[in-house]
């Protein structure tokens, strides 16, 4: 029988974090689940009293993160898989977004993952290795109106994750950016901070809403099944698009991007750098 692994999952109470937590427990693994409010995990705590540990943690608080990571490793003696999932959505145009909203968004979506990564690396190195999964987005490769800061945070997370992967590979630590497609996670409802809309963007806002439609996407559990397969791969990719429809969309965007580069190739090559 395979040895049970230990997961440390941030933002574990809803959406993908909840789905990953449930999938890990169902596989016989142990989970340290954190979020600002862990009340929604009452049911899982009742059914998994020996394999689920939960406590409140604000990932935007660096000192609290370092203390929380120590507590997580102490709970079961080690952590094998770290999932940086905590995050939210800042919905609105660039002009509409306040400094407070932008900074708060990046504190959780980007810096929270940075603090967790900095805290876990020395502990993973000391135990001889482990996995870090950064929950990113299939849209991280380019900005889109009304969700520009969300995309910017995920692009930063991807770049940071790729650098981290190079830095820790020699220690047996594997890092993968999970470029998630659209799943029914509640990101656009309970996980959203909205700007005060300006009338100048009313038409564009309606256009974007029509483009996205009302389909909330598939159940996050369908993505969790893929992640359970990923963590069994000895040499995982640095980035993985998670979702068949999203894979097709990314391929289409890459083809469009290549066409634009070729259109402006002469101007690009007019500089020597």
Description:
Keywords: Oxidoreductase. Pfam families: adh_short. The chain is an alpha/beta fold and 273 residues long. It has a single domain (6-242), classed as NAD(P)-binding Rossmann-like Domain (Rossmann fold, 3-Layer(aba) Sandwich). Helix content is 48%, strand content 17%. The protein has nine helices and nine strands. The protein has helices at 15-26, 42-47, 62-76, 99-127, 148-168, 202-212, 220-230, 244-263, 265-269; strands spanning 6-10, 30-35, 52-56, 81-84, 89-91, 130-137, 173-180, 192-194, 239-242. The chain has a seven-stranded parallel sheet with strand order 3-2-1-4-6-7-9, with helices on both faces. Helix 2 links the parallel strand 2 and strand 3. Helix 1 packs across helix 7, helix 3 (62-76) packs parallel to helix 4 (99-127) and helix 4 packs parallel to helix 5 (148-168). The longest helix is centred in the middle third of the chain and has 29 residues, at 99-127. The mean pLDDT is 92.
